[in-house]
Amino acid sequence: MFELSPAELKARLDRQEAIALLDVRNAEEFEAWRIESKHDFPVAHVAYFDFIEDPEAAIAALPFSQEQEVVVVCAKGGSSEFVANLMNEAGYNALNMTGGMQAWGDLYEVREVVPSSARLTLLQFNRVGKGCLSYLIASGKEAIVVDPGRHVAQYVEEAKRRGLSIAHVVDTHVHADHVSGAPELVELTGAPYHLHEGDASFGKLNVASGEGQIRLGELVVDVLQEHTPGHTPGSTSLVVDGRFFISGDTLFVKSVGRPDLGGHAVEWAHDLYRTLSEKIRRLSDDTTVLPGHFASLDEIREDGVVAGVLGEIRKSNPALAIEDAGAFVAFIQENMRPQPELYGEIRRVNLGLVSACEDQRTALEIGKNECAASKALA
Questions:
Q1: How do beta strands 238-240 and 244-248 pair?
Q2: Contact 229, 257 (CB under 8 A)
Q3: First CA to last CA across the chain, in angstroms?
Q4: Helices (H), the chain
Q5: How confident is the model at residue 127, as a pLDDT?
Q6: Which end of the chain is more exposed for a tag (fewer CB within 10 A), N or C?
Q7: Which of 74, 132, 357, 371 is catalytic?
Q8: Number of C-beta neighbours around residue 122 at 10 A
């Protein structure tokens, strides 16, 4: 059996290699979340149970030639292995993607936002399948990790490889779409955990006191001083070196963070409007916005970094063009969709109200994030 990893599949799709994808999960799972690429590639869906019930008919339904290299994907990698074997026995050129969509959702890519120097290191960790972004900021020998995912070893290893000590851990807000890695990272490093009291007060978290600036070497990072409520009451943003705006779920390149996840859509939408129209308006047009999520793959720059220049975002992001609070609330309501059922439980885990084992955390995180005030996913 020939296999390839999610990272290998991502690299081959990025290189626009002649490769096709067969997804064998059920139709509902396929419609809700699938593998994407910036470049078009052939995709087909034939459910695993079709191969169980009538293998010959399922094989005959494949829209691929036997010469076409086909990657078979399922939820965890087991069903796809079975189907890939059937296809190969029938003369097809099939490969199994190891770990399935679960592994695709755990794939990260790390990019330098700017070339690293002793004065400033700014890395973006892109959790590709979920559209989640986290950051490592460093100057001198100390680093801040912002919005870490639960796979915390990568931050520790990246810091160690660069000779850095993780001195602070920040969550820009209480996340609803993924389990935060902040508590585990704090335990591993002994660094203080920063989360605005507007969110922390709902849970049982041991957060650092104090607000304002953090100094790393020659660098000044405004952390809790930049309180930007709306997505949640305690949402914050970070201004790094006066030119990079790590916006959490407040502002995305093409949308804004949805304010309804806590059940106070109208109230929090008014907060978000004030944040956008007052605080973010103060930032200069040449500020680089580094969001917590991306809504579509065309928000990824050619260098692989998800970012936008604020002046351009002001022209293209419809939420920033609205000049009236009532119209903004109406815009948010028009772009509302039901939140995933598991988001409430993820918030409870992240607030320290309940615990979850690794298998439970994995199950909670299945699927792409739905944190934007947009009818589109992400």
A1: antiparallel
A2: no
A3: 34
A4: 6-14, 27-32, 48-53, 55-60, 78-89, 100-105, 153-161, 182-189, 197-200, 265-274, 310-316, 325-334, 343-350, 358-364
A5: 97
A6: N
A7: 74
A8: 23
Q: What's the pLDDT tens digit per position in 274-317?
A: 999 999 999 999 999 999 999 789 899 999 999 999 999 999 99
The predicted pLDDT at position 378 comes to 43
pLDDT band at 377 (very low <50, low <70, confident <90, very high): very low
306-344 pLDDT per residue, tens: 999 999 999 999 999 999 999 999 999 888 888 888 999
Cα separation, 177 vs 164, in Å, equals 29
Tokens 């290191």 correspond to 121
Closest CA to 269 of 326, 187, 192, 191: 326
Tokens of 217: 């070497």
Question: CA 39 to CA 109: how far, in whole Å?
Answer: 18
pLDDT in tens, 154-192: 999 999 999 999 999 999 999 999 999 999 999 999 999
Given a contact cutoff of 8 angstroms between Cβ atoms, the answer to whether 290 and 113 are in contact is yes
DSSP one-letter code for 289 = E
Cβ distance 137 to 216 under 8 Å?
yes
Contact call for residues 371 and 248 (beta carbons, < 8 A): no
d(CA 234, CA 174): 8
Q: What whole-number distance in Å separates Cα of residue 39 and Cα of residue 37?
A: 5
**Non-local CB neighbours of 323 within 8 Å, separated by 6+ positions:** 277
Q: Are 257 and 371 in contact (CB under 8 A)?
A: yes
Cα separation, 291 vs 245, in Å, equals: 8
What letter does residue 299 receive in the DSSP assignment?
A: G
pTM: 0.94
Assess whether 357 carries a catalytic annotation: no
d(CA 266, CA 303): 38
Say if strands 219-222 and 213-216 run parallel, antiparallel, or are unpaired. antiparallel
Query: Token pair for residue 338?
Result: 């039901």
